[in-house]
Design goal:
4-stranded parallel sheet, cytoplasm, UDG_fam1, hydrolase, Uracil-DNA Glycosylase, subunit E, 11% strand, alpha/beta, Uracil-DNA glycosylase, 221 residues
Length: 221
């Protein structure tokens, strides 16, 4: 399995690809894809890096696992392919955007348009076995994606990190708070959102206010 990652990221992540853990991880993933149905499709595993170049990066959103139902995962956290029913967390993200920015609820759940504007939609684990949530956790993906976050923190500045839920909030320790912006809230999943930890966080307007202050183009959410 060849690791095909966009050139702008290759420079800062090349060292990781040579490490023993990463080689073991790739062997594990290759074996899983050969013997089980896994998501996303092989060519979409590194999609978050393909759509958002390192040089255009403005915002990082951290998810946990790809969706594990048929035709859902497209390599971008919280995103689904065009025409696919919106999963509960995405519905709550879109509801918050509608309220926060006073816009229409989006019809497509495909977040490629965010990624193309400089939003890295990064799952901590980049692959999953069909219908088995968390099945590819603790196999090395988290080591890799933690390194991605560290490198972004080190090599960049003024990035807005959106950390939703307990899992994502733990990543704050990897980020230099003097150089970057961190916005935290509960997770958009119904379990958290319905208990009052998600709605009203205004992360989308707050992110755009920060970008505006930095004289950067705001995100069209």
């Amino acid at each position: 399995m060849q690791v095909k990652i966009a050139d702008s990221w290759k420079n800062i992540l090349q060292n990781e690809f040579e490490k023993p853990y990463f080689k073991e991880l790739i062997n594990f993933v290759k074996n899983e894809y050969q013997n089980h149905t896994c998501y996303p499709k092989g060519q979409d595993i590194f999609a978050s890096f393909d759509f958002c170049s390192f040089d255009d990066l403005k915002v990082v959103i951290i998810g946990q696992d790809p969706y594990h139902g048929p035709n859902q995962a497209n390599g971008l956290c919280f995103s689904v392919k065009d025409g696919i029913k919106h999963p509960p967390s995405l519905i709550n993200i879109f509801k918050e955007i509608s309220t926060d920015l006073e816009t229409e609820y989006p019809t497509s759940g495909n977040l490629e348009k965010w990624a193309k504007q400089g939003v890295l939609l990064l799952n901590a684990t980049l692959t999953v076995r069909a219908h088995e949530a968390g099945s590819h956790q603790k196999e090395g993906w988290e080591t890799f994606t933690d390194e991605v976050i560290k490198q972004i923190s080190k090599e960049n500045e003024n990035i807005v990190f959106l950390l939703w839920g307990g899992f994502a909030k733990k990543k704050a320790k990897l980020i230099d708070k003097k150089k970057h912006f961190i916005l935290e809230s509960g997770h958009p999943s119904p379990l958290s959102a319905n208990r009052g930890y998600w709605f009203g966080n205004k992360h989308f307007s707050k992110t755009n206010e920060i970008l505006k202050d930095l004289r950067k183009k705001e995100i069209e959410w």
